[in-house]
Amino acid sequence: MDLLANVAVENKRRVCLVWEDLTVVASSVNNSPKRELLKGLSGYAEPNRIMALIGPSGSGKSTVLAALAGILPTNVSMTGNVLLNGTTRSTGCRDISYVTQEDYFLGTLTVKETLTYAAHLRLPADMTKNEIDKVVTKILAEMGLQDSADSRLGNWHLRGISSGEKRRLSIGIEILTQPHVMFLDEPTSGLDSAAAFYVISSLSNIAHDGRIVICSIHQPSGEVFNLFDDLVLLAGGESVYFGEATMAVKFFADAGFPCPTRKNPPEHFLRCVNSEFDSVAALMQSKKEASSSWNSLMKMTTEEIKSELIKYYRNSIQSENARKKIREIKQSEEPLVEKIYDTSRLKQLCTLTNRSILNMTRDIGYYWLRIVFYILNQ
Ligand SMILES: Nc1ncnc2c1ncn2[C@@H]1O[C@H](COP(=O)(O)OP(=O)(O)OP(=O)(O)O)[C@@H](O)[C@H]1O
To answer: I need a surface site. Which of 16, 63, 142, 299 has the fewest CB within 10 A?
Structure first.
């Protein structure tokens, strides 16, 4: 069996991700008290599904992604477990990939060149040039980048590909190694609604090809929201909702906070838990506009709605189902659950960060070599 086929077979293995009682605490600075960034979150992610992580700014979305990917900064400590099954590797680079908000590229290279260099660096050394070309062609097609394959990426003085295409290229580079789990921090930030839809559609296709995709996202449009299978809504580091995205509207209605007709559901969910709206409401009150405000219709402050929802979620059927599913995944004999890191192996939390730095350094080194060869050949 050739290497490409090997990669494909491995990719079909079912891998589930489970997190239990995830608590992240930031150490005190200048005698300030320790701060709990995440408060005992539990959940799971299955292959063939794409999960949205939403919540107000500062609710802990990036911290959850970093905790699950094992790249928390050193000034925070984590308790709880993150479990990944079906693999004997711990945080091996083929299992987990993390796409940051920023795209780091050399603007003078084309899309295809960038993918090809990344493929040469990241794929097994014994893959032939022909095999690598096949992988690159497949990814260009998968990410809808065929038409811009020969376009330069661009930089401050060179007009290049669009921001949406850059995002898709970043994702394409990460799927080169066929990771089982992909984390993405705000993959649609700075994109217009059409580009955001395209990026999330591509991610949905990647997920439905047997992978777990989890991404944080700010205010998704209704169309983008409909692409997600699962939803985690966070507020102040706590779970307000965890479950199927399509069931969230019913959850809010059952909890006593129904989504008004014609309102975009994620907008309503965020409106319910974003305490910043309280200060906006206070400002409006001072302008005598409060009679029409949302809070006055609800007769509660956002802080009160948030605590009500957190309490409701804890005793909800969604929370019970999540606990049951976590138990089932952990008990399933085939494949085995492997603990990828826990509080006793905190050092492993740094491995991904180190690997990213290593990859970046290697990438830069390779690009410089390429430039030197180019100059010598002129
Ligand atoms: N390393 C850290 N040390 C101390 N506090 C931190 C650290 N990382 C994050 N925080 C704090 O934890 C809270 C959650 O941060 P996080 O970046 O996870 O939120 P977020 O939901 O991703 O926000 P945004 O949508 O604005 O990116 C914030 O109040 C932030 O200031």
So the answer is: 299
Transcribe 4-63 into DSSP letters: HHHHHHHHTS---EEEEEEEEEEPPSTTPPPEEEEEEEEEEE-TTEEEEEE-STTSSHHH
pLDDT at 106: 86
CA of 58 to the centre of ligand 1 (A): 5
Which atom in ligand 1 lies closest to the alpha carbon of residue 216? Answer: 22
Distance CA(109)–CA(39), nearest Å, equals 44
Half-sphere exposure for 372 (CA within 13 Å, toward CB): 6
Provide the CATH number for the domain formed by 3-377 in this structure: 3.40.50.300
Q: How many CB atoms lie within 10 A of CB 145?
A: 20
Ligand 1 centroid to Cα of residue 346, in Å, is 20
* Segments of the chain scoring below 50 in pLDDT: 1, 3-4, 7-9, 86-89, 91-93, 290-293, 333, 335-358
The pLDDT value given to residue 354: 42
Number of the ligand 1 atom closest to the C-alpha atom of 76: 1
Tokens standing for residue 252: 């809010």
- Cα(256) to ligand 1 centroid in Å equals 29
What's the farthest any 2 CA atoms get from each other in the chain? 73
pTM recorded for the entire structure: 0.81
- Contact call for residues 228 and 50 (beta carbons, < 8 A): yes
In Å, how far are 107, 306, 307 from 301, measured between CA atoms?
48, 9, 10
Name the residue of 59, 71, 239, 353 whose CB sits within 8 Å of the most ligand 1 atoms, as the mutation to test its pocket.
Answer: 59
Q: What is the pLDDT of residue 301?
A: 84
DSSP string, 287-336: TT-GGG-HHHHHTS-HHHHHHHHHHHHHTSHHHHHHHHHHHHHHH--SSP
Per-residue tokens: 284: 């409006």
Question: In whole angstroms, what is the distance from residue 209 CA to residue 51 CA?
Answer: 14
Query: Which residue owns the Cα nearest ligand 1 atom 16?
Result: 60
Read off the tokens for 247: 């069931």
Q: Could you tell me the residue ranges of all domains in the chain?
A: 3-377
